Amino acid sequence: MPEILDLARTQVLERGVGLDEAGVLAVLRLPDECVPDALQLAHEVRMRWCGPEVEVEGIVSLKTGGCPEDCHFCSQSGLFTSPVRSVWLDIPALVEAAKQTAKTGATEFCIVAAVRGPDDRLMKQMREGVAAIRAEVDIQVAASLGMLSQAQVDELVEMGVHRYNHNLETCRSYFPNVVTTHSWEERWDTLRMVRDSGMEVCCGGILGLGETVEQRAEFAVQLAELDPHEVPLNFLNPRPGTPLGDRPVVEGKDALRAIAAFRLAMPRTILRYAGGRELTLGDLGTRDGLLGGINAVIVGNYLTTLGRPAGDDLALLDELKMPVKALSATL
Amino acid sequence: MTGKGDAVTAAALWCDRCGERAAEGDHSACAAARRLEPPRYCPACRRRMKVQVLPAGWSATCVEHGTARSG
Ligand code: SF4
Ligand SMILES: [Zn+2]
Ligand SMILES: [Zn+2]
């Protein structure tokens, strides 16, 4: 057993204290033959500090495309020649999407908009949409609307939005290579306001943007410092027309190393499979990650791309004897 | 594309993923990618379509040729 896994066993598994940057880096650098041991330990950590339940979520795009920001991985930026066109979802379709999501047994429904931050029109849509969902569907509503003002944070709390997603995307030192229209610190400011408001903080990012393995470790500990309730882990799905459109996808083994390492950095967080797992990990790898530290999934489609059918993921959870977290357990 | 209602049924002239001529070049990578993506270009006229992805499906609308939906 490599030394770092021995250390992780006493520090993370037994005491619940996450690995520091050097420790995370050591896990990210483990040779292939040690990856199963790292995943096994990460799974034990997840079972010990989070339990066997898996949190299931659906997401939907309320406003797609035409974003003024330049996140180099994103097909929804209006600054690239991406084929994604701007489109708004109406309230009946939004409620229908929430119903479809609830039908899968999901407890979370996240409403997402491709914006720098909400304007009055978007906040009005949110007010109407969240009220309609809460009246008709038994599901918790989360939101991801970019950078917020304090007044907008307060308004979302008032609407009953219980969790807010705002990804840091990558570590602080690499961020300027990926986004130039706003800073990592601006994102951090929104996250701080969200946390102080009492909403749950959901913050993760994307691996495979060209960051080094050291920068992946840096990112894991920066997230750990934020201590988010949930961390969605995406793997780059290179989108045509974006500056990162020609990047290779993350190797499956590297993705699994990262899953184990992020779990060992954050023993108590909800670590969620988000976009890109189908491409990077396929069916077999998806299973390895669920047995290696992941304890939440996005089911069904993403914002501009498609996922596996929700039924496939639910069948896998059933087979792995991992109960889907019930709504009563989240209230 | 699995159309419904007023959807396009004409022969696909254009690749619905990359927007290039369907009969020219190799679109096998496009076809593979389309398993995890909705269409983006109208196969009849090459216009970029308004695409809405929902948790359990998608719809794609060409202003000229109507709306196609996932089956
Ligand atoms: S802010 Fe969001 S929607 Fe806009 S370009 Fe960046 S990732 Fe895409
Ligand atoms: Zn093509
Ligand atoms: Zn057309």
Automatic annotation (TrEMBL), chain A:
Keyword Secreted attributed: no
Catalysed conversion reaction: (4R,5S)-dethiobiotin + (sulfur carrier)-SH + 2 reduced [2Fe-2S]-[ferredoxin] + 2 S-adenosyl-L-methionine = (sulfur carrier)-H + biotin + 2 5'-deoxyadenosine + 2 L-methionine + 2 oxidized [2Fe-2S]-[ferredoxin]
Any one GO molecular-function label of the UniProt entry: biotin synthase activity
InterPro entries: Aldolase_TIM, BATS_dom, Biotin_synth/BioAB, Biotin_synthase, Elp3/MiaA/NifB-like_rSAM, rSAM, rSAM_sf
Cofactor note: Binds 1 [4Fe-4S] cluster. The cluster is coordinated with 3 cysteines and an exchangeable S-adenosyl-L-methionine.
Top-tier EC class: transferase
Residue ranges occupied by any Radical SAM core domain in the UniProt entry: 52-277
Designated gene of the protein: bioB
Organism the protein comes from: Phytohabitans maris
Top-rank taxon: Bacteria
The protein's assembly and partners: Homodimer.
Cofactor: [4Fe-4S] cluster; [2Fe-2S] cluster
Pathway(s) served: Cofactor biosynthesis; biotin biosynthesis; biotin from 7,8-diaminononanoate: step 2/2
UniProt-annotated binding residues for [2Fe-2S] cluster: 110, 202, 272
Keywords: 2Fe-2S, 4Fe-4S, Biotin biosynthesis, Iron, Iron-sulfur, Metal-binding, S-adenosyl-L-methionine, Transferase
Protein name: Biotin synthase
Entry EC no(s): 2.8.1.6
PANTHER family for the chain: BIOTIN SYNTHASE (PTHR22976), BIOTIN SYNTHASE, MITOCHONDRIAL (PTHR22976:SF2)
From TrEMBL, chain B:
Keyword Metal-binding tagged: yes
Cofactor or coenzyme needed: iron-sulfur cluster
UniProt keyword list: Biotin biosynthesis, Iron, Metal-binding
Biotin synthase auxiliary protein C-terminal domain residues: 49-70
Record has Iron as a keyword: yes
Domain of life assignment: Bacteria
InterPro entries per UniProt: BsaP_C (IPR058605)
Family to which this protein belongs: Belongs to the BsaP family.
Function as written in the Swiss-Prot or TrEMBL entry: Required for the activity of the biotin synthase BioB.
Name of the protein in question: Biotin synthase auxiliary protein
Native species: Phytohabitans maris
